C-alpha cells in the first residue's frame, strides 16, 4: 500500500433547501497518495470495501447520492469543488452566510463524501461503498426532507478507504453521528 499516514480534515455542511447534506463530515486526506496511479488507488481501496465507480477528467453536473458514500482520489493536477449546495439553492442562508464550501484538492489528495453531500463533479477517480442513485438538487424542499430521512439508513463503513480497520473514518463518522443526531 502506497499511502502516507495523515489525519483527515473534517468539514460539516449544513442542509440547504434543495440539498439535505449529511450529519457526517466530508473528510479530506491531504497528500496521502504516494503513488497516484489509478491501479494503486484501486489496489488500496478495494480491499477495504470501496469499489471503483469511475474515472473522469471532469463531470460537470452537480449531484448527490442518498444510497452511498464516495471517495475521490486525485491522480493528477488539481481541482476546486463546490460542495454541499445545489443549482436551485440561494447563494446565502437567512443569516447571510454562504451555502456550501469550496474545496481545493491537488494530486495525491483523497476526499470522502458521506452520502448526500453534493459535488460539482470534478472527481478524477471515484470509489463508492455501495450502488448509487443520482439526485441533482432540483427537488422541492419537502422532497429534500424525505431524501434526508432515507439517507440516514446508510451504514457507516466499517473500513476506512485508505487505512482499513485502523483508519479514522469509521471512528470520526460514528462520533459525528452521535453528536450531531438529527432531531
Automatic annotation (TrEMBL):
<dbReference type="InterPro" id="IPR011051">
    <property type="entry name" value="RmlC_Cupin_sf"/>
</dbReference>
<dbReference type="InterPro" id="IPR047121">
    <property type="entry name" value="YjiB-like"/>
</dbReference>
<protein>
    <recommendedName>
        <fullName>Cupin type-1 domain-containing protein</fullName>
    </recommendedName>
</protein>
Amino acid at each position: 500500500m502506497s499511502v502516507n499516514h495523515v489525519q483527515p480534515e473534517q468539514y460539516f455542511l449544513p442542509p440547504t433547501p434543495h440539498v439535505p447534506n449529511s450529519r457526517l463530515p466530508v473528510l479530506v486526506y491531504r497528500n496521502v497518495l504516494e503513488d497516484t496511479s489509478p491501479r494503486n488507488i484501486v489496489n488500496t481501496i478495494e480491499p477495504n470495501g470501496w469499489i471503483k465507480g469511475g474515472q473522469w477528467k471532469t463531470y460537470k453536473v452537480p449531484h448527490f447520492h442518498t444510497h452511498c458514500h464516495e471517495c475521490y482520489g486525485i491522480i493528477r493536477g488539481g481541482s476546486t469543488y463546490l460542495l454541499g449546495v445545489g443549482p436551485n439553492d440561494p447563494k446565502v442562508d437567512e443569516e447571510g452566510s454562504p451555502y456550501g464550501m469550496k474545496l481545493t484538492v491537488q494530486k495525491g489528495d483523497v476526499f470522502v463524501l458521506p452520502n448526500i453531500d453534493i459535488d460539482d463533479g470534478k472527481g478524477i477517480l471515484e470509489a463508492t461503498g455501495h450502488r448509487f442513485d443520482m439526485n441533482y438538487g432540483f427537488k422541492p424542499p419537502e422532497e429534500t426532507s424525505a431524501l434526508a430521512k432515507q439517507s440516514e439508513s446508510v451504514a457507516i463503513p466499517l473500513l476506512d478507504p485508505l487505512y482499513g480497520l485502523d483508519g479514522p473514518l469509521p471512528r470520526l463518522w460514528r462520533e459525528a453521528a452521535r453528536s450531531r443526531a438529527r432531531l
